[in-house]
Prior knowledge:
Layout: H1 10-19, H2 23-63, E1 66-68, E2 74-77, H3 81-87, H4 90-122, H5 128-136, H6 143-153, H7 160-167, H8 182-207, H9 211-219, H10 224-235, H11 237-252, H12 256-261, H13 273-282, H14 287-316
Antiparallel strand pairs: 1-2
Helix pairs in contact: 3-14, 4-8, 4-11, 4-13, 11-14, 13-14
Amino acid sequence: xxxxxxxxxxxxxxxxxxxxxxxxxxxxxxxxxxxxxxxxxxxxxxxxxxxxxxxxxxxxxxxxxxxxxxxxxxxxxxxxxxxxxxxxxxxxxxxxxxxxxxxxxxxxxxxxxxxxxxxxxxxxxxxxxxxxxxxxxxxxxxxxxxxxxxxxxxxxxxxxxxxxxxxxxxxxxxxxxxxxxxxxxxxxxxxxxxxxxxxxxxxxxxxxxxxxxxxxxxxxxxxxxxxxxxxxxxxxxxxxxxxxxxxxxxxxxxxxxxxxxxxxxxxxxxxxxxxxxxxxxxxxxxxxxxxxxxxxxxxxxxxxxxxxxxxxxxxxx
Length: 317
């Protein structure tokens, strides 16, 4: 009696050989390959992140505990002496006060004006591309250009601002030379320069609000102001929180326009904490002391950011 051949077809034999590999082992091998590919794609970013962020932070923290100087002198490890000196430094506290004052008086108009401009454009004004370009284009300018432009306009004798005041019968103002006015002059330049970024954020948020809300409100007899305060503003809450946080953090780091327009004057009335850190390190040659002030300022920014995030989460909850 003949028996059937025991050999299987080629396709079936191939499938049986594949099935010989345990499923967990194949999955583990595939997972290892995916991990290798992921780390390979992330490697360039990690190199830059570690080289230009993590390492400078660690190096700066170590430097703040030393008496290192640009003159070449290095008194070695001195512990918290730099921090003790910084907390007793009246010039540092004044510079920090100037920075907080600038942040306070610049953040409010940068939020309110940006919201007003976005609301106007969102109303459907003709030639919207022109309005968007006009409001946003100053943000693309370099800080040097903006500072030079406003320094000319603030000129006590030939500037545009004093010429306008003269036409109104108002005495000229020493915009950049009067301690009580200089900071406001810098704020005006900053608002004109940077309000376009917040304007775009608000405009994008307004255009994402469903039109059905406004149509339903119109049917109920709500006018434009009522719709704005009852529909638009509540919907813009998360955007406003984000803009306020970004604006405060950006204003706390102000340096360029102040240094280029007033160099911190007159009499230190506009000197920011970042400028004081720069002067301590590169004018006073005290790198260790400058690093200590930097970390004090970093701690302040961190506390403000955490407080804002906590407040925003508590309000949303």
